[in-house]
Amino acid sequence: MKRLNTIITFDCAYCGATNEIEFDPTAGKHVALTEDCYICCRPNHLRITVDEETLETTVDVEMDN
Ligand SMILES: [Zn+2]
Question: Which of 10, 42, 56, 61 could form a disulfide linkage to 51, CB 3.0–4.6 angstroms apart?
Fold first, then answer.
């Protein structure tokens, strides 16, 4: 059985710190998440796209509006 959870990294949209989060790539093809930066605690809006075949993830980060 495949390991489901993967670690994805994103750079905080505010302070640039690299954050790591655990993500289940089977959660969906397009997933929106809000994660607080562990350094500055401001909310980063992540849009995660999962390649259905490879389960590779692409992450877009946006600031809170
Ligand atoms: Zn930050």
Answer: 56
**What confidence tens digit (pLDDT) does each residue in 5-44 have?**
889 999 999 999 999 999 998 888 999 999 999 999 999 9
Q: How far does residue 2's CA lie from ligand 1's centre (Å)?
A: 32
In angstroms, the CA 23 to CA 31 distance is 10
What's the structural domain count of the chain? 1
Indicate the pTM of the whole model: 0.85
Query: Rounded to the nearest whole angstrom, what is the distance from the C-alpha of residue 49 to the centroid of ligand 1?
Result: 22
Q: Are 30 and 48 a contacting pair, CB within 8 Å?
A: yes
The domain of 40 spans 6-63
